[in-house]
Structures are given as structure tokens and as C-alpha cells.
Amino acid sequence: MTEPLGAGMFAGCAAHGPSPIRFGGKWTAKIIRCLEGGRRRFSELQVPLRGITPKVLTETLRVMERDGLVSRHYHPEIPPRVEYELTPLGRTLLQPMDACCAWAEAHLPAVIDARDAHENGARAAGV
Description:
By secondary structure, this protein is mainly alpha-helical. It folds into 2 domains: 21-90, Winged helix-like DNA-binding domain superfamily/Winged helix DNA-binding domain (Arc Repressor Mutant, subunit A, Orthogonal Bundle); 93-127. Helices cover 51% and strands 11% of the residues. The protein is built from 6 helices and 3 strands; from the N terminus they run H-H-E-H-H-E-E-H-H. The chain has helices spanning 11-14, 28-35, 42-46, 54-66, 88-91, 94-124; strands at 40-41, 70-75, 81-86. A 3-stranded antiparallel β-sheet has the order 1-3-2. A hairpin with a 5-residue loop joins strand 2 and strand 3 (81-86). The two termini are 31 Å apart. The relative contact order is 0.10. Residues 13-112 form the HTH hxlR-type domain. InterPro entries: HTH_HxlR, WH-like_DNA-bd_sf, WH_DNA-bd_sf.
């Protein structure tokens, strides 16, 4: 039998405030990949990020800037030009993301099979 989980198991993490890693952010990892090669304009980011609204892209970039992952460069031209790039801190996420991509490539068929089996089991049970 396994030991019960302790109520303070995350106490060491809580002392540092909220976690900087947002696993639920749909667009953050994709934006990081878009900026991997260097500075990009807002409109350039929208091309590969089909489906993201300008509002959500703006909000995501602001959160990433607040967290120190992205820097924003404003050029006071007519029309104004804004570019975004990964900070050194943001670049530290590239290696863990590579590991996640490698894991997904190796295990995605098993995940899809598990999802299909779960869905078929739920349907068979009438859920």
C-alpha cells in the first residue's frame, strides 16, 4: 500500500509564489517556437498561429512579457512597429520543450490509442 499524500507536499513551492510555468496556456509554447529564430512582428506571429485572435495573442504576449519570457520592442515610426523576441530566460525553455516534443513524437500513438479506447469504453457503457 502506498503512503498517503501529505497536506504540505507543495509547501516548498508555495513559498516562491505562483508557478511561472503555465501548462494550460494553449498558445505560449507555440509563440516560443515562433520566436526561437529571433525578433518577429505581431503580424508575422499571426501567420503560423492560425486560429488565435489578435486579442488572445496580445494578452498572451503581455503575460509572457510580464513573466520575463518575451521582450517587446517599440519603434516610433509611422505606422508604429512593434517586435517581440525571447529573452535569455525565455530561451531557457527551448531545451525542455525539445524534450517534450521528442516525448510526444515517441508516445503520441499510444496516447491516441488510449484516448480511443477510453472513448469506446465510455460509449459502450452508455456514458
